[in-house]
Design goal:
The protein folds into 3 domains: 4-42; 47-135, Homing Intron 3 (I-Ppo) Encoded Endonuclease, Chain A; 142-183, no CATH class. Strand 1 and strand 2 form a beta hairpin. The radius of gyration is 23 Å and the shape is elongated. The strands form 2 sheets. Strands 1-2 form a two-stranded antiparallel ribbon. A two-stranded antiparallel sheet has the order 3-4. The protein is mainly α and 192 residues long. Helix content is 42%, strand content 6%. It has helices at 4-15, 20-26, 31-38, 45-54, 89-96, 126-135, 152-160, 165-172, 176-183; strands at residues 57-58, 67-68, 105-108, 121-124. The protein binds zinc ion. Residues 65, 110, 112, 115, 117, 120 line the site of zinc ion.
Amino acid sequence: MLTDKQIIGIRAMQNRGFASRSVAVKFDCSHVTVCRVWRGETRTYQERLEHRYWSKVKKTGLNNCWNWLGGLDNGGYGVFNHPLLTRSAHRFAIILDGRNPKRKVVRHSCNNPQCVNPRHLLLGTHADNVADRVAQDRSATGVKNGRAKLNPSKVQVIRKSKESIILLARRYKVDCKTIKKVKLRQTWKHVI
Ligand SMILES: [Zn+2]
């Protein structure tokens, strides 16, 4: 297993026109290993991390919402587990974008909590966030003052479920009409 430093070093040798066999000797690894790095098959830790992250995102056009395809928390925000930095997918998008969200709130200009398009993410303070919520009618997105019995992850489960509407209504303690509307995408439209 090569270190990131070795991978970057081996790549630099390719750009400088070295033969793969001499690079293998210099880095004390096999010729096959060098060729793998040069073909782009060996990734650094950062590249592996970014690859893992973007594989969970549905990118649709530069300026559209990019919805998170992985798990969601109760607020409908994407969850991306990074052992050190954050467990929030949209905060991680900010980091990948080269901005520092430390001690800041990451806000969505599109009001879609599932979105991780860096163009839709703004850094702000908690006060900005509160002002936003007052200004916008959040009920349109489905979550109402914590009284809602459904949340985005439950909505996803309901839509995928092949169980009867009556059964789902009973489980989530809502009426059948609510389940039907969720299934027909008349409500919770922003959840994919
Ligand atoms: Zn968006």
